[in-house]
Amino acid sequence: MRMLYLLASYLLTPLLLLHLAIRGLRDRDWLKRWSERFAFYRQAIPPGGIIVHAASIGEVNAAASLIRALRARFPELPLTVTCFTPTGSERIRALFSTEVNHVYLPLDLWDAVHRFLKRARPRVLIVMETELWPILFLASQHKGIPLLLANARISDRSFRGYRRIQSLVKQVLTSASSIAAQSETDALRLAELGAPKNRIKITGNLKFDLDLPPGIRDKGLSLRQAWGVQRPVIVAGSTHEGDEVPLVQAFKGIQKTFPEALLVLVPRHPERFQSAAALARSAGLRVALRSESTEVPAGIDCLVVDAMGELLSCYAACDIAFVGGSLAPVGGHNLLEPAALSAPVLMGPHTQHSADITAQLVDAGAALVVQDVEELGQAFSRLLGDAGLRDDMGAAGQRVFSRGQGAVDRTLRLVSELLER
Question: Has 59 been annotated as catalytic?
Fold first, then answer.
């Protein structure tokens, strides 16, 4: 299986590059820095430090508190953060500027990975969540580089898929020096897939250790004043097209009851900013773009936030938060961000990427799962009409968020152990 993967990685590279080029037609950033995809870097990578790989924007956000803690705990070690997507890269720069080194992780090709590791020579490599790249893991083991799989989770879908190639997955997991699982369920699945049980520790979910930016609530209040303090506001964050179509339909359905309501769409990917606005306009909504003005005139029904890094402040300004990737069959995005800001949370049924968090929020009365447009519209109406219920749900979400913290400290202990070896 290892040799088959090695062969397939090279045979499929042209198709992957074609995929990147096609994405580049909508977002030009995908066409930049291609040399880094093969571990040819213009800037230096300081050797002998810690590398944290967070694939895209969601993983970067989850890793942010850990990265800050690593900088504080090990200030003498250079810290490099890698990702694979332009949005992840932009988020790394927005969060850390020049405080950390940043490059793209190369494609999982034997020569590229070895070139990367030879240049970086990390003392510890930390890979976030379920980025199981066989060559990266096996090459790290071969070179004696301790590798920590952090915030590890295995969704139902991933578990079924990995079992089909279990012999390869077992080799990959066995090459990890330590595995920090989000939950007991994740730990059991990792062990069943072949991870050595004595290397698995349940550390909790790093997303609970979200560092809310200073003044984020004040920024939310300023946004709300710009949008209209008296207007009911629904913020739909990290949306995909499969979320936006039912969101717009449900919003249209409640406008007779709540004519002043404002729908704020925050698409997950920059290449969808314009298409999300076009979708809302085609449904008859009057649309404004965040880039055009911070003010939202009373006649506007829908605001499309066509900028990255503003989702938290939007959640801080809303009456109701809907988390995207959940009506669309994507698996759901970060539910804890609105919960941490005391917003009542709505989501669709596709939340397998955060099943444990979903269960905790629903059980605590902090979140509601809706199945379709009709249930979404009913939830909008119910919550907008009951301020007490919104307050109760928001408070419950904040309690769940507070109880779940501590994963960063537990993960730091594993990093310390690997550095001492």
Answer: yes
